[in-house]
Every structure is written in C-alpha cells, then in structure tokens.
Amino acid sequence: MGVWKKLLVCELVIGLWIASVPNSIMAQGKFQGLPMVTTYSPEEYKAGIQNWDIIQDNTGLIYVANNLGLLSFDGASWERYEINNTKVRSLYQASDGKIFVGSQGGFGYLHSDETGALVYVSLSDSLSQEQRNFDETWKVFQIEDKIYFCTFQGIFSYDQKRVEVISSSNRLDISFKVNNQLYTFEYDKGLARIENNQIALVKNGEFFKDKRISNILNFDRERLLITTFEHGAFLYDGDIEPFQFNGDFWEDNFLINYSMRLRNGNIALATQNAGLFIINTQGELILHLNKSSGLLDLTVNYVFEDKFQGLWVAMNYGIARIDLNSPFTFLDDRMGIAGAGYTALKKGNKIYLGTNIGLYISENGQMRFVEGSEGQVYTVQELNNAILIGHQNGTFVLKNDRVIQVHDEPGTWIFKSLPDHPNLILQGNYSGLSILEVQNDEFRFRNKLEGFDESSRLIEVDEDFIWVAHGYKGVFKVEVSKDLTRVTSSKLYNSQNGFPRDVLINVFKIANRLVFSADTGFFEYNEFTDSFDPADTYRDVLGDDVIMVDMEGDALGNVYFIEREKLGVLKPTSSNEFELHYSTFNKIKSAWNDDLANVMVLDNQNILFGGKQGFIHYSPGDDLPRGITPSVYFTKISNRGERDTVLYRGHDTDSELMSKLKGMSFPYDQNSFEFEFVSPHLESDQELTYQYKLNKIQEDWSEWGYENRREFTNLREGDYQLMVRAKNIFDEVSDPVVFSFAVRPPFYRSFVAYVFYFLGTVILFFLAFRLVDKKYKQKTIKLEEEQGIALEKKEKEIKSITQRTEEEIIKLKNEKLQSEVQHKNQELASSAMHLIQKNQLLTNIKGTLKNIAKDEKGKQLNSQLSRLIKTIDKDLEGGSEWEQFSDNFDQVHGKFIMRLKEKYPNLTPQEIKFSAYIRMNLNTKEIANLLGISVRGVEIGRYRVRKKLGLERKDNLSDFLLRF
Asked: Which residues pair with 300 in a beta bridge?
C-alpha cells in the first residue's frame, strides 16, 4: 500500500505540474519539447539579482549589465567589474573594441590597459553640473561615428572627442535604434526621431503619447513592430494598426519589457509578469518559457541572441541561456512528465510516452497522465489496430485513453507479430514467452510457451525462428510447435559460437534484416555453420569496439543508434553505404537514460531518446550545419619567478599588446609561467576540453582535458611556443592559439659567460699546462732526486752489502786470522811450553850435572860435565829459538815486539822477552823457566819493565801489554 500511496502522491504532483504548464507550449500541432535552459543565479555569478542588458564581443565573451556592475562570462567563469559603484543599465561594444557603458547617473567606456585589463573611463564626469542632472543611462547606441547615451533628461552624443547633449523640453523615456536611426519617446507628445540633433515627432507619433514604448524593431520591409509596456504591440508604417496575437496564449495584462527579432525570423517578447514568449510573424506561439519551464523569474528585462543562436535572458532575478537553435528539446518534469523515459509511440496527433512512473499522453501541446498506468511502462506498441502496453504489472491495452489489463503475469517486455498468424501476438516476459489472441478487437491471454523460461526483453521474429537476446547469457534461437503451445528447441549462442563473450549480445531488425551486436561490433547468423560471423554492414563505419545498446531505422533508411560511448545516426549514401553522424548528439550524451536505453523513431522528423528525466526529442530538420568554428583565447598570462607579474588579462586579443608580448624574452630568474585560456563556445557549457603543447617540453599534444589552466615552472633557457586548442561538445577542434616567448639563460650560461668560459678555459688550460709542465719538471726533478736517492740508497745498500760483504770477508779473514792467530798462539804457547819444559828439563839436567860435578872428582869427567853444562846454558839462552819465536809472535800479535822496540827503545832484549811472555799471559814461574831465572828475578824484571814503560802503581802491567 505504501507504494500505491507514493504513486498517488506522484500523480497529484504531476497533475499540479500539468496545470501549471501553459496550453500552448507546443504550437501549430508540431510535436516538440522544451529547449535546454541553462540558468545562472546571483549566487553563481556573485553579483546583484537584477540584469538589464547583454552584449557579446568579437571573441564570444558575454557581458551583462548588472545592478552591481558589469559582468563578463567566458563560458567557464564569471567576472565582475565595478563601475563607480553604480548600477549598470546599458552596454554597447564599438568597432574599436571599447565597451560603452550606461550606468546610474553616469556613462563612459571600458578599454584595455597595458596588460589587457578592462579599465573604466568616465565621460559623464566631463559634463557640467547642470548637464549631469540625470538619473539613468538606459540605452547606448552607435550611429556612424557617434555614440549616443540615452537618458530620461536628454541624449548625449560622443564623437570620440567631446560630449554634446540633445535636450528636450519634455521628459524622455526609452530610446531605440532602428535602421540606423534613433527614436525616442517624449512624455505627453509620443514617438519621436532624432534628426539633425533635434527631436521631432514622427507621423502619427502622438498615438503613443499615453503608451510607453518598450522597443521598436523591423517587422517586414515596410513596417515596424512597436511593442509597449502595457498596451500590447502595433505595426507602424506611418499608419498604425494593432498586432494580432493568434491564439489564446496572450493575455491583455501581460507587460512587454522588451522585444527583438531573432535570426530565424521569429519574435521574442520579454514580459514583466509572464516570462518569455517566442512567436512567429503571424502572432502564433512557438514557445513560452516561465518559471515552471526553467526560468528563474517571470520578469524578463532583456533578451539577446548570441552568435551561436543561443538566446540570453536578463531577468529580474538571474540570467539564463536558451538553446533555441538546437535540434533537441526535452520532455521532462517541466512539461509534467516524471521518471526516466522508456518507450514512446505516435498515433495520429497523440504521442504516448512510457516512463518508470507510468504512461503519459501528449496531445495538442497538452500532457496528461493515464490513470491506472502507475508503474514501469516498458513498451507501448500499436498492433492489430490497438495500443498494447507492456508493464511491470503485466499486459494492458489502451482504449479511450484508459488502460485495461489483459494479463497479470508480471513483467511484459515487448510484443511481436507472428507471420502467418495475424490474430496472434507474441510477447516477452520476465519468465519467458507467451501468446496473446485477438478476437473481435478484444485481446486475451492465450497461453504460455512451455519449455522456455528465460527473460525475453529483446525479441526478433524470423521466418522460422524466434531470436531472444539475453543480456548475460547470449542469444537464444527458439523454435516453437505449430500450434504455438510449446518450445520444441532452444539453442544458446555465445562465445562458443562466434561471439566474443557471453554478455552484451543484442538483436535488432533493421530494414527487415536481423542484426546481432556484441562488445566487439556486429555479427550475422551463418545457417550453414550454425554459428555467427562478423558482419561488415555497420562495422566499416562504426568500427570493432562498439557496444550497441539500441538501434532503430526510419522510412528514409537512416539508422538511429545508442552506443555505450555515443549516440548518433547512420545516414545512407548513394553508394549504399552509411555515413556516421554523431557530433550533434554529443549535446545530449549526458542526459540519455543508460538503464533500458531506447531510441524511438516516431516518424522521419520526430525521434525520441529515453532520458534520465523524461525524453529527448530530436528534430532532424532543425539539425542545421554549424557555421561558426570554435576558437580559443588566452584569458590570463602570468610570469612567475623572483617576482610575480600579470602580463595579459584577456581582453583585446588582437591588440598591439599581444603582438608585443609574443616573442618577448624573460630573464632566467623569471622562468615560470601560468596560462589561462578559454573557448567561449557557450553552447558547450562545461563540456569544453583543451589540449596544449609546449615545444622543447613535449613533442605531441597533451591528452584532452577540462582544465583551462596550465603552469610551466623552472623552464630552461630557449625559445618556446605554447599552442593551445579547444574541442567543443560537437568534437569540433579549434585552430590553436599560439604564444611565443623566450627565456634568457642565466648569466653563467649566457653568450658573454660562454666567451668568458672559453677564454677562461684557454687561460686555465694554459695555466694548467704550465702548472702541469712545472709539476712535470718538478716531478722529473723529484723523480731524478728520488732516483738519485734510490740510486744512492742502492749504492749505499750495495756499499753496505759490499761493506758487509767485505766485513764478512774481513770477518772471515779475521776469523781465519784469529784462527790462525789462535793457532799461532797455540803454537807459541805450545812452543813456549815446550821451551819451558825443555828449559826446565835442561835446568834440571844442568843442576843434576852440577851436582854430579861436585860429587865427581875426576877432572876429565868434570871437564865433560862443564862442557855439557855450557852447552845446556847455551841452549837455554835460545838465541835462534827466540828469533823464530819473536817472528811468530809479531805475526800473531800485530808486530808487538817491533812496535814495543820502536816505542820503548831502552828496553833490553831480556825485558822485551819478558814483556812478550807477560802478553802471552804466562805466570811468573813459567816466565822464570823460559828465561832461566828465578821467580825473584821475574819480579825484579816486572818492576824494571813497569819503570821503563812509565806505568803508575795503579796501572796493571799485564792489561797494558795486552792493549798495546
């Protein structure tokens, strides 16, 4: 019950919407929706609520006169300029680029300063105090070389040098420019014209003296259309006749604030209390927009048509842009349709529209909800002269605009006629297939086809088979029994039968030919192999990577399609091929319904796409070529570094300033830049994308992106060229805008620095060469010294080795000599011992002989003994033995005896022997035996030797003789 309550509430709200929609939204029986309306609230543009005038400069920027100043809009962002803190009422851009401004109590112009920023120059300040006694400057016009500022107290003309006033004795009202002539309204007089700086009434101008005129415009070649604030509109050619509004849409209490002739010939009427009306020259309503249809306010002060034929609306509260020139209109909640659009059918002058909320009928510009259709309407089809409705709650038939339920099985997706069975209709449901039967224009449920329970949303009937596409399994080829009661065979085709995958497989019938699509293009059934092969019919124009959601053809051979990435139409050519047209449809790419998406061809001139909110209507006849190519401009150029400088602020793109800036060079400490750019393609709204390329940094264009700002930091020195281009919503690419600049190298990388580096390098090389040469020489000397030292060391080592060798040799020799000396000493000692022993023996023998001689009395024997004793004495003296001993002794003891004789010549031979024996370290007794003297005699001899050698008592004789 809660769901039904919600549906009833929804229906009530819908009814209120319908009541609020004027009966003449769609005039002349032409089926259309409402145009896309883009609104800008005061919170968005951040200024006053009231707006009074709108102009567009040659770059495409929009300027709006606002209560808090002048607004500019580049398609991406708003900017506000204060004009002496007053309200801005009127605007006009002259051919020289100046923007002339009429404000509260003043007027003047804006021009670009040295950085391209807009600067205001007041012209009213030059007036006398008496001339400045005016309140508002409501209009600004240019006629030939003069600018006219129109106030209620007078009209001021400016010829680029001085300001003159055209005064009137009566108070003036709004002024107008028509056919290069200036008209005004004088209170209590009527309509007048400026001639030779004089104000004169036109023919029958007094007719309007009690009718305030809101605007004058050309109606045809002879007549003007004059609209008034309170008294409607009139045609004027000297004579005056009321302009007739054709239809009941116009009410006498509607107040016309402004009127203008659109480029397509229609007339826009901006009202004070009823929004905006678009009428044709016959006075028939084309379009009426008010708050319920998208405007922020009913009070429209001014309208302006930009160069893209978008209609700008200046309101008492906010600003709006209306896509009047678009082939797309929208059937949504503004027209009383709720929910996402699923299906549509045109029958006669009625359009049946099914959404997820229910069924709606559009007839003669009015929209109404069909009671009892609450819920999701999946399909509305005309079969057997009846309108069938596939609904979440089952199957319905529409009679007298009321729904009658035929079958209550939930979820009826689609209906299809059956060949050879004109009174039977196949329907696809959540859980399979079933048959409806028609008898006497009455529909009834006949039977369910047993043996097939798959969800059947997409069905196409061939001569022999029923093809059912399942979004997650593949496509089924179904054969049914002749009595249409059961499925005799059902075969599933998927990735095992030629398709790339099992999912996203659809089936369509275009020009009576089955077309199967998958996520890699199109396929056709090959009955010989019972599988699917790639098809080239659409592949050649759409490619291989398309995922087709829906396709439907019209009677002219055009095939409208919805694909995962784009919407479009394939148009047949004379060569039986197709041309792809999709860029126009980019406008609605974000608005189409991606759930149960559907394209519906009502007829050749009325195509519907299911939208997220309602439906999107496409009128091929209104899809005209776009004559204006997109453009892109720099809006701000900043130089960053040690200091931040704004070089350019975005106005006067063709001025000398940009010419001067292009090619400008910057010091290295200012090598960072920030660029802001915009393409004022207002129809694209926020869907503009940009590419850039900076040489030396990137060889190829960047990826397309929404960012309209780019910063480059720490650029190296060199010549740079930044190229920026834009792509609008229709995939049209602008010519690139180019900004060339140069970054000078730092001083240490400048030409002078490089010359200095070169010279310095040469000098350094020279000095280095000298240094290296000096070092080489020093090194050579050092090497020589080191070599000398090394050689000397080697020589020393050699000498040392030689010396050591010699010493070794000497040592060896000494050792040999020592050995020889020791041997000699041993020989001397042996010889001495021998002598001692011999002398002792001889002494003993001599003593014995003396004793014998004493005892022997015989003379002969004594004589012999005496001779023998003498012989022994002679032998004891040892003259010859001493000589041999002394020679050996000198050889062993370094010529000791010779040196001793030379130094002490007063020594007696006996004392020399005595000294030699002492040196040999013989004891007293041994010396006594060698010398043949007594021990006492040895002592006396030692004493005498000490005396002759000059020894003191403390000196040791043995030590002295050993050291000598």
From this structure: 315
